[in-house]
Amino acid sequence: FQSYTTDIVIPFNVAPLNFKLLNPTKRVSVGDFSFNAQKQVVDSLIVKGRSSYINFPLKKWKKLLACAKGSYIEIRTFVQEKELWIRYQPLRWYVAKEFMDPYLMYRLSISEDYTYNHITMEQRSLENFESKDLLDNDLMGNSCMICRILKRIFHPILKN
Q1: pLDDT tens, position by position, 94-103
Q2: How many Å apart are CA 21 and CA 41, to the nearest integer?
Q3: Structural contact between residues 109 and 119, judged by C-beta atoms closer than 8 angstroms
Q4: pLDDT for 60-76, tens place per residue?
Q5: Residue 138: CB atoms within 10 Å
Q6: Dihedrals φ, ψ of 11, to 5°?
C-alpha cells in the first residue's frame, strides 16, 4: 500500500486509492467528501469496516472524483480503540481536471535466484486495477523478449 499524505494532486480517472491503517483496529469509519469551488460538499462516500484495510467501491469512487474535478476531496478517518473513537488528521487531495493515460505497460520478472525465469510484459489499467499479459516468455520458448524492441513495437512513434 502507498503511504498517502495531504495536499497531493490526483487525476479524476484514477482507481480508488485504497489504504491500510498501520495500527490494527476493531472498527474503522472513513468519510470521503467532494467539495466544489465554493467549498460546499457536493458528494460523499462512507466506508465502514472491522479491519485496517480501507477499500473504496469503484463506482462510488468514480462518482466522488467526477464531482470534485477541479476542486478537492477530503478523507476523514476514525478508528475505534477500546471504547473510544479517534480521529486522524484529515487528508486533502486535489482532483485534477486533466485526464490521465489509463494504461501502464511494464515487465514483470518472477525470479527466485536473480536470473530471469519467467517474464511477462503486462498492461495494467490505472482506472480499475485490471491487468492482462501482453507477452509471456513461456509461450516464446523462454527466450529473451528484448524489452527495448518491444517498447518500439507497442509505441512505434517513440525514438531512442
Answers
A1: 999 999 999 9
A2: 25
A3: yes
A4: 999 999 988 999 888 88
A5: 12
A6: -70, 150
